[in-house]
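Much of our argument rests on the idea that a fold can be written as discrete symbols. Part of our work consisted of pairing the sequence of a single chain with a tokenised description of its backbone. No coordinates are needed to read the tokens, only the vocabulary itself. The record that follows shows the chain in one-letter code together with its fold in token form.
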Amino acid sequence: MTDILKERRLINLNSEDATFKNNTTFLSNCIFSFPTILKDEQDIVYVEGGILNAQIPVSFYAVNFSNHVLYYSLNSSIFSITVPVGNYNFNTFATALETQFLTNGHTIVITINQSKGIITFTNSIGTLDYFQETGSTIWRVLGFETGTGNFNATSNVITPPFLLNLLGPKKLKIFCEAFSVNSNDSKNYGTSSLIDTISIDVQSYGQLNYSNITGEYGRLRKKIITDIDISIQDENNNFINFNNTDWSITLAIIIYRKINISNNDLQPLLSGLGEIKDLLVPKEEEVMEKPSVSLEEEVPLEEQNIEEPLPQLNTEDLDLLLYENPNFLS
């Protein structure tokens, strides 16, 4: 007979304690080295694992190192600007862009359609040719569609077709090769080491508090775990820049072990029964050695209730008796 034992272990991680911080103060690509988290043991049927809870600071910016560069052509020459990383509203964002254009010697004014949220770039000196998609990481933030190529100016004016997007990352994706469960991601349409996602539903400079309230986890592919790698990225697979603000994640690992119940497991019980048997054996032998009782030897004959057989008479004997004793007839 086989039974299953469920064993739970917790692994608490803090980015400050990481053995390796592969992207330094970004703190979004860390490795934690442990002596042994999981070993390949014969009695393990399977292992589940994932994030139990997490506390993650919203210390990253909407405009960051992955989306703050714009290339453009003015007077048939290519230029670029780099917007300082940070969180913006329209007014502060427009001021930052105009300042960067002025650094290149160009006066480009930015306005916004309040009802639609769409911005407009207007050049006043020289000829604005187009905004260049290649190399422009801020393309979608400004309201341009990815994959459409360069966007030409009309009479020194460029108006993107879609609204300005200053929301920043909307979701955090947590990757961990050690705890991988064959997840799928539309970003590459293949399996990945994605173990969980966390929605960003608090304001900047707040804290995300995540808890796995269902307690359900995926089945791990790894049979041996020593190092735990944590990678935190946005929905576009860009590493998050936590600006040297630490996060905490607690992982849970559930080990399912098989228990074989055999005769060896019953040996203590059998030994106890053997001792009881030893106490009973002398009484059984005593009974076996006592001779059996015979009625003929033990009970006197006169005490035996034995019926004597009646004599067998016939008519001839009766006639003789009557003839010899005539008194019976008188």
In short: The longest strand covers residues 44-57. Helices lie at 90-103, 139-142, 263-289, 295-298, 315-324. The chain has two domains: 2-60+173-260, 69-158.
